[in-house]
Amino acid sequence: MVAKAEALLSRLVVSENYDSVNNFLTLYDAYMAAPDEDLKTFFPKYNPPIRAHKHTCVGLAMEVMKRLKVLEKDYPGITKAMMLVSCDENIEDLRDYTTSFPGPQGFLIETEKDHVMLAIHVRVGGRPGVFLSDLGYHISRVVTVMADRCYPHTGWFTQSDEPHCRKEYNYQFNIHNSNYVEWHERETRGKTVKERLSLVYVAKAYLTAVSVTEKRNLIWDLKSLLARDPKGHLKAGIYFHVKPREQLFTMFFDSNSGKQRKKLKFETFLELQKIPDEVVDEVEQCNDQLHLRDGELLSILNRLATIMADQEYVAEVLEINNKVVQLSAAA
User: Fold this and answer.
1) CA-based torsion, 220, 223, 227, 231: positive or negative
2) Beta bridge mates, 171
3) Could you tell me the superkingdom of the organism this chain comes from (predicted)?
4) What is the pLDDT of residues 62-107, one digit of tens each?
5) Rounded to 5 degrees, what angle do the CA atoms 158, 162, 163 make?
6) Are residues 251 and 152 part of one domain?
7) Residues 19, 146: contact at Cβ < 8 Å?
8) Which residues neighbour 237 within 8 Å (Cβ) at sequence distance 6 or greater?
């Protein structure tokens, strides 16, 4: 079952980019077309659409559910067993979080529910476990988490190993509360090792993925549009932080002379006819590797440049993001 699921996932991770840029553009267009009001008045009423081939973790998890339904014939019941589950990233007090309440309801005010993945509960020889799929974090394999941490428990694995950075992940049930799976991340850059802990709530399906997590993503200050290979490694794309002054983005892609990574100014793309030819050529190379229509990335960068030049709007986005962060940190 894992082998068949992973064959589907490795194709899906290539055909579907990770994209938190297009929902940002859509929000701006909807806001500009709305009656005269500020963003903090408009934002609570806004319902973000989930559109084909423009997916954050939410849309990607939904897409995985659709694709894995073909396994129903071989594994009856898998369709009903699949569910979206929520993830809280950067847990500070693991014991307090997992023992204060049986589920996350007691923490709804102070958590951001900023990530979504797919889960399938299983029993292997009567032993409980869960399969996890997380294309939002570019994981093209199925992670098997057994309650007893014995075979076929995945344990630690290397998610990516680049010259400048290695990322390793481990998933295990929390010993105090089996409603939660701990997600441990270890990032090694040279001699510096950073560790991070997230918690995945697997006891029940997450029903508000669009209205909470997708919406949270809209005003998150990191945006990216990324193409992956069958193993989930990043191949090409753009990413940037929404900032009031330093208006830069990074574009990376493969060229005849090797991997390219360019820092570019958004203002370069405000007027399409004034963009230098060599920059247009590089954008087109990246566009092709993102599997976009001809000229689509150039159009996206032009629209982003317009948004980033709207200093009042950028300030409003960052203000809402900061309020969400403060709310979760203060509670």
Assistant:
1) negative
2) 183
3) Eukaryota
4) 999 999 999 999 999 999 999 999 999 878 888 888 887 777 755 5
5) 130
6) no
7) no
8) 17, 224, 225, 226, 227, 251, 252, 253, 286, 290
Torsion sign, CA atoms 322, 167, 91, 119:
positive
Q: Which among 18, 9, 6 has a CA at the least distance from the CA of 217?
A: 18
pTM comes to 0.94
First to last CA, the chain: 42
Q: What DSSP string runs through 19-64?
A: ESSHHHHHHHHHHHHS-S--HHHHGGG------TT-B-HHHHHHHH
Q: Which structure tokens are listed for 178?
A: 């089996």
Give kind and range of the element (H or E) at residue 192: strand 192-201
* Same-domain status, 26 and 87: yes
In the structure encoding, which two tokens stand for residue 329, read together? 């940190």
Q: Which of 176, 194, 215 is the last residue of a domain?
A: 215
pLDDT 10s digits, 220-233:
999 999 999 999 99
Q: Show Cβ contacts of residue 52 under 8 Å, excluding neighbours closer than 6 positions.
A: none
Please give the residue range of the domain that contains residue 266: 221-325
Closest C-alpha to 60, from 178, 174, 224, 193: 224
If phi > 0 it is left, if psi is from -120 to 50 it is alpha, else beta; for residue 138 that is left
Q: Please, what sign has the CA dihedral across residues 141, 142, 146, 150?
A: negative
Q: Which residues does 223 contact at the CB level (< 8 Å), separation at least 6?
A: 20, 21, 24, 239, 240, 241, 242
